[in-house]
Every structure is written in C-alpha cells, then in structure tokens.
Amino acid sequence: MKKRVLAAAAGLSLCTSVFAQSITLTNTFGGNSDSIDAPTGGSDFITFTQHDEKDDSNYGNSVTTVSDRLQLDFSTAKLDGRIRTEFSTSKLNGKEADVRFRGYLRYRPVEQLGFVAGNDFFTKYTVAASYFAASDDYASYGKMAENGIAVIGDVAGLRLAANISGDSLYDNNEAFKLNFGAQYRIKDVASFGATLKSVTNGNFSTGIFAALESVENLTLNAGFVYNSTDTSFLPAASKYVLRASAGYKIKDAKLGLFADFATGLNNEYIAAEKDADKNITGYETLEYKKDNDDYVPLQVRGRVSFDATDTLSLNTFVKVNTLVGADASETVVYPYVNIKLPKFGTLNAGFRMKFNDNVGLAQFSIPLAWKYKLIDKK
What are the protein's UniProt keywords (predicted)? Predict the structure, then answer.
C-alpha cells in the first residue's frame, strides 16, 4: 500500500512538473556520506578499515560504494514539490544494488497556507535557529515536520506547523505521532523557534532555539533539547541537551570559520521498554553509568574553508565524539576540495580519517561526488 501511495504521488508530481513555472533536475554521482544518502546509509566511494587492533597496518578494503542521486524540484502557482531517487551498489563486495524513492508534494490554496504529503520533507520545514554551521545541516529535533501529512501556515514572519508522522501512518507497530512547530523571524534581526515531537505518546521531545541575524556574514544560534535521540550530532541519546553553533565569513580574506557544539547536561537518556515480541510498551529514564562513573555524551565540530580561486575551495572538517567520564572517543579529520567545473557542475573530493582510542587510525576513506544540473528552468 505504501509503495502504491508513493508511486501515485510521484506520478502526480511528474505530470505537474510539465507545467511548472520553475523546474530543476539535479544529479549527484559518486560516493560521499555527507552529500549522497545511499539507501542503506551514506557511504564514501572507497573505505579502508583497520581489522586487527594489534597490527596497526592491517587495513582492508571493506566497502566500495557507487551511489547516484537524481532529484527533481518544481513549483507552480499552487503546487511545489521534490522527488528524489537514490541508487547505491556495493557489488564489488558481493552486495546487491538498492534503490530508494523519497519526496513530497505541497498544495497552496493561498500563499499563507500549505498542505503537504510525502515520505520525506528533507529540511523544508526546519527551525532556522537550529542550523549547524560547521555541518551545514540540521538535526531531526530542529524539524517541525519530517514526513507524513502536514499543514503549514506562514503569516508576517510567523510559521506554524502541525504534522502527523508518516511512521505512524504506514507502520502498525508505531505509536501515533503528532508533531507541532513554530518559528518567528524578525527580518535582519533575530529568529526564534520551537518543535514539539510525539506529543501523543511517551516518547515526547521538544526543542527551543534562538538565533542572531543582525550581523552580516555571522551565524550565531543556540538551543535546548529535551529527549534528543538523533545520534548524528551527539554520540548517544540524551535526556537534556544544550547545543550551539557559530560561523563567520571573512570576505576580504575569502575565509570561513565555523563551529558546532552539543552536549548532554547529565548522564540520563530515555529508552523504549519492549515486550517479548519487541513491541514498545512504554518509556523509561536510564543512566550512562559504570563503576559509579557517570558518562555524558559530547560532540564538537569545526570547519575552515578558503576560496583559493573563483572555482576552487579548500576545506578542512573535524568532528570529535566522546563520552565525558569514559575512555571512549572518536575523531574524524576530513580535508576536501570543491571544484566548480564550468558548465559541468561541481566536483567534491577528499580524504576522510577516523581515529579512536584503541587503534589510532581506525578507518580512512575517499569521498567523491560530482553534482550537476540536467535542467534548470526558472
């Protein structure tokens, strides 16, 4: 049933796009866990993993991945949407290819009101103040609506959202999830926002965010999250989280400096209780604790970018994951370049290294992505 609904939505969107006032068809090819979300999770083009902790030179080519993303964005006076097809193969490792379809369609009877449906809204309805500058991304707790069915209202800088999660619509084992969000932006001054997730069940979470927008080229925001389960921006779930992000572009020096920070405020987290059939029966607060030592999850990210020429950008990204109080940390160092190819899109390539406390350099990989527009009509 779910596949039929998605296929119908995709067909409707394609028909609508024929009459679109604006239409963009973009393809991204390669393997880069930051820019191509392979169906089984983002993967770099070639990955080498340390297989023997006693021999720090024993690296094996455990993953070779080629992915492709084809994305259609379109808009008309009343409709707009996105369809994304992602293909990934690791056949060199004996794995089969996989394909994933994602997208949404929004209908606006009037400019201030929109009705949205789809299996992924991407970052379309996020609180602006929840932005992570070093990562150029958003955590899920900053999204007012992620998938399913949503109603969005926009009036004089105020945005309100109500959303029924697609997980609870398509999966009978999932509890009904009702989400809300709000954002108010004072143009060129500041913005404020909040999200409330799963308000109808025991896995309730909320985030409150604020950002300064009055200084040109400056990104500065902060927020508080209750019941964070997104482990992309924190190494483990946490009941109370403080997060912040800052960035500044020095135009004369063609230099950009960016930093993200997120930490749990204590050692508590919320976990699901399950019965013998793995059905969720409730939620409980647990602690990260061993031998009377409390562990607190922490993540710091940093990025430096330098525009060497109009077509060449040099970047270095660093991420540190750790559990404060425990001997467990991971550091990622990722130098990369962005090269603009006249009439042929953008090429991204680099060298990603992962270090941990046990073996030092535990993994290294070669990310590669080529992004180009097949159609660009506006």
Answer: Signal
Residue (of 337, 325, 346, 340) closest to 366 by Cα position:
337
pTM, two decimals, is 0.89
Pairing mode of beta strands 178-186, 137-138: unpaired
Those residues whose C-beta lies under 8 Å from the C-beta of residue 67, and which sit 6 or more positions away, are: 29, 30, 31, 36, 38, 43, 86, 87, 88, 89
Residue 291 phi/psi, 5-degree rounding, is 55, 45
Residue 53: CB atoms within 10 A of its CB come to: 12
- The answer to whether 367 and 338 are in contact (CB under 8 A) is no
| 62 conformational bin, left if phi > 0, alpha if psi -120 to 50, beta if neither | alpha
Q: What is the helix (H) or strand (E) element at residue 61, kind and residue range?
A: strand 59-64
Q: 209: closest CA among 179, 181, 188?
A: 181
Give which of 90, 107, 196 is closest to 151, Cα–Cα.
Answer: 107
Query: What confidence tens digit (pLDDT) does each residue in 94-133 have?
Result: 556 688 899 999 999 999 999 999 999 999 999 999 999 9
Tokens of 26: 């973009």
Q: What angle do CA 212, 231, 281 make, to 5 degrees?
A: 115
> DSSP secondary structure string, 346-378?
EEEEE-EEEEETTTEEEEEEE-EEEEEEEEEE-
Tally: H helices and E strands in the chain: 2, 28
Is pLDDT above 70 for 3?
no
Q: Which of 94, 109, 185, 195 is nearest to 144 (CA)?
A: 195
Tokens 């800088």 belong to: 157
Token pair listed for 71: 């994305």
pLDDT tens per residue across span 280-319: 888 999 999 888 889 999 999 999 999 999 999 999 999 9
Which structure tokens are listed for 47? 């990955």
